[in-house]
Amino acid sequence: MTNLATSFFRYLILGIQHILTMNIYVAPLILANLLGSDSEQTAQLIQMTFLASGLATLIQVGIGIQLPVMQGPSFVPLGALAAVGKPFGLSVMLGSMIPGAVAITLLSYPLKMIGKLMKSWITPLVGGTITLVIGVSLIPLALNTIRGLPGGAISNFFVAGVTCLVLTFLSRLQLKSPQMQGVLQSGSVILALLAGTALMSLFGPLEFSPDSSTQWISWPRWLPFGVPQFQLSSVLFISFVYGVILVETIGTWYVVGTVMNRTIDETRVNRGGWGEGLGCLVAALFGATPVTGYAANAGILAMTKNHSRLVAVAVGIQLLAIGLIPKLIHFLAAIPSPAMLGVFLGACGAIATSGYRLVQTFGWSTRNQVIVGVPVALSVLTSVMPPTWIQALPSSLAPLFSSGISVGALATILLNRFWR
Q1: CA 137 from chain center: how many Å?
Q2: Does the residue 300 lie in any domain?
Q3: 160, 236, 343, 403 — which has fewest CB within 10 A?
Q4: What DSSP element (H or E) covers 329?
């Protein structure tokens, strides 16, 4: 019984750490602002996003790719969804997401086309480069986000930097006791967040008390924004965006595979695509946005050294619970953003390191230098590109260039395929 209780507590803590790293509420908040939603619709979007992310994670780890891949809302389609939802309404926006999700599911199983495509186009060198691209391209995103936070820029960067250093130190600290080493690695994210939160409190009071009007339990509604409406142009537009999301999430699978030393073969890609499609379909039906695998969680896997699928199961169950308890959502949102982003920076560094270790095993010939260096440079360039430049692009290209990960991943695949 003691061992069972210890294991339960350990996976509970591990799951909480992954959730704290994901910042799931940020994507629906951004979309709500883009759509001009009222407070009720915003709260509904956040709740549905947590529920959809929990279900999608359980689908992926159970019958999908069957690796500890945590699913959450993708940031790639937010601009495209707003371009559909603002003029035509939420029912058209959600209707535009359903066909693309169904298409990904069918292309994976029973057609099994995604695995064949990835097998011929994505080599181990490509997978390692995509891993490196994801880690590197997320760092400018984190830094730009910290810079845009309210309050003093110096204090925000200071808190984020200290939190990142604490997390890195704890994840690398070696203790003589194996049991204490496991406890330290399991709780490293929470300890780093506590340090960052304590440091942030020196710059001003923190507010963790939820609004008295916030409900404890709130049950989800199926199709909360009405019956989906299908508009052909919107369906085609969002279906193209799904292709970009798929490239993003496949890159995450390679990150997880690299961390776990697992081969992402054709069968596993097909299963992952099936899980991705089903997860996106569930998200649409719950009134949430398309989901994707979160690369930052692979960084946490690398730091905690626990690669069990039970970690992802714990995350999925906890996300479902949070989606049913609005007061918990409020509590998570109250954790200082600089501390959260400090943990995110640490995870990005772990991802980039994993990718670099893999690609260097292939040697540094001129071809390999270009295949690795050019995509990394393009992904960073895209990540720091002014939003006005992206808005000036044709609507068919804007979703692609809104993500440094997508640009870097596509550049890697094309360079490897056509430079022989």
Answers
A1: 13
A2: yes
A3: 236
A4: helix 326-334
The span from the CA of 95 to the CA of 2, in Å, is 49
Torsion of CA 143, 346, 273, 49, to 10 degrees: -70
For the chain, the domain total comes to: 1
Q: For residues 37 and 91, what is the distance between their CA atoms, to the nearest angstrom?
A: 13
d(CA 337, CA 345): 12
Residues 6+ apart with CB under 8 A from 371: 125, 126, 129, 412, 415, 416, 419
221 located within any domain:
no
Query: In the chain, which residues have pLDDT < 70?
Result: 1-6, 30, 33-34, 39, 79, 177-183, 185-186, 207-216, 220, 330-334, 395-396, 398-400
Q: Considering only CA atoms, which of 253, 167, 247, 242 is closest in space to residue 411? A: 247
CA 256 centroid distance within chain: 12
* Cis peptide leading into residue 375 (ω within 30°): no
Q: Where do the DSSP E strands lie in 101-220?
A: none
Q: What is the pLDDT of residues 149-169, one digit of tens each?
A: 787 888 889 999 999 999 888
Give the residue numbers spanning the domain of 251: 2-203+244-418
In contact, 350 and 200? CB cutoff 8 Å:
no
Q: Are 132 and 376 in contact (CB under 8 A)?
A: yes
Cβ(128)–Cβ(258) below 8 Å: yes
127, 261, 274, 310, 313 from 270: Cα distances, Å: 16, 19, 6, 22, 21
pTM of the model: 0.76
The tokens of 358 are what?
């893999």
Among residues 26, 44, 20, which one has the least CA distance to residue 315?
20
- d(Cα 268, Cα 256) in Å, to the nearest integer? 12
Domain contains 53: yes
